[in-house]
Amino acid sequence: QTAYTWAGRFSEPMSELVKRYTASINFDQRLWRQDIRGSLAHARMLARQNIISAADLADIERGMAQITAEIESGEFVWSLDLEDVHLNIEKRLTALVGDAGKRLHTGRSRNDQVATDIRLWLRDTIDAILDLLGKFQTRLLDLAECEADTPMPGFTHMQVAQPVTFGHHLLAWFEMTRRDGERFADARRRANVLPLGAAALAGTTYPIDRESVAAALGFSGVCKNSLDAVSDRDFAVEFCAAAALLMMHFSRISEELVLWMTPRFGFIRIADRFCTGSSIMPQKKNPDVPELARGKTGRVYGDLITLLTLMKGQPLAYNKDNQEDKEPLFDAADTVTDTLRIFAEIIGGIETRPQAMRDALRQGFATATDLADYLTRKGLPFRDAHEVVGLAVKRAEALGVDLPQLALSELQAFSPLIDKDVFTALTIEGSLAARNHIGGASPQQVRAAIGRARAKITCP
Ligand code: ARG
């Protein structure tokens, strides 16, 4: 037996530099479980179809059990000479069980093998992400429930706009992440088909049974075209696109946390275990975790762009370019997983400062729209009401007071339609209670929305 896998056709071995350049073992060894799982399903099918003997299958199963134990215990020696996870495991199998190990690759290529491994890995990864996303959402809804009545300013253009409740704001985050969950679940559906059987690119001459391999590995079906089966990385791109969107959401969430925890806002405090201090300024408590999440969003965008660019110039079928799919994919998955894990905890470490939220609400004429709506209800066309209230706001601003602090007589100077009942409309509670429709900010609606959201929590 020759020293390297394809020595038959070659007259000299690869140069050391080329070996290092072309090897993927340093990063693809994390696919080892999926690789062994796929190999066992393939070998069992070969035996069922009488392509290999029952004795060969028994040897392969015994060898793979030993390899699993060796990798788990850290004894397994990964070799750069053997390029990637597939050849490392196959070589060790042959060392352990002889010819049966050499028969494993019958009717298979690393091209359909690696595509299968990545799909298996991604499926498990998506399930873990969906589970973490659900945990985050559960804690988010728990907090929203506690804060369903806590008024805070809603902003547009970062200017105080109208009252909402903190619970209502958290429900917006819930909706964002619920869509993320749907996108991952959708990507999973398309990833969950079996490439094996495509072999190098054209299928194989052996009487294989692809459906049974798909069923054994829990795939919903088989890739329909052998060329596409080994070339397609859409599923990895889709995953990274979903990851990029999720990170965009967490970056926006982070930005709000950072703002809210500045003394200028003071809306929340984040537990010390999620903050860091300064090496020079003794007073500092910095929101490093949300800031890093905001920063790490950039690398996940980069992962997506890397994959899209990797694929755009490739003719069918397999090209070695594809080996570059793994690092961005792993990086996006790891970043999303860590981010979700940490945010599920941060939510439990948020302490709200309702008084600061209320104080902020008093500073931006947050119920001005309510006054316009009040006048409109009394018959004034909305555009006229808008102008009247604008004048009232200008007056209040000159006096340095909020709208409800203007005397009734002062308000009536702007419109004779204004009566005593105006003050209900001008209070924060009145403004909130009036937004009583699906999706609105009233505490009653927020509670109902939380109830509905509980049934929509993301799960694998
Ligand atoms: N390590 C390779 C990859 O990740 C496996 C497939 C290699 N196939 C080939 N024809 N060189 O894509």
Automatic annotation (TrEMBL):
UniProt protein name: Argininosuccinate lyase
Limits of the Fumarate lyase N-terminal domain: 8-302
Keywords: Amino-acid biosynthesis, Arginine biosynthesis, Cytoplasm, Lyase
Species for this entry: Dentiradicibacter hellwigii
Family classification: Belongs to the lyase 1 family. Argininosuccinate lyase subfamily.
Pathway: Amino-acid biosynthesis; L-arginine biosynthesis; L-arginine from L-ornithine and carbamoyl phosphate: step 3/3
Transmembrane segment boundaries: none
Catalytic class of the enzyme: lyase
EC identifiers of the protein: 4.3.2.1
Domain Argininosuccinate lyase C-terminal residues, every copy: 365-432
Keyword GTP-binding: no
Location in or out of the cell: Cytoplasm
Chief localization: cytoplasm
UniProt key word Oxidoreductase: no
Superkingdom in the source lineage: Bacteria
Xref: SUPFAM superfamilies: L-aspartase-like
PROSITE patterns with a match to the protein in the record: FUMARATE_LYASES (PS00163)
Catalytic activity annotation: 2-(N(omega)-L-arginino)succinate = fumarate + L-arginine
A single MF term (Gene Ontology): argininosuccinate lyase activity
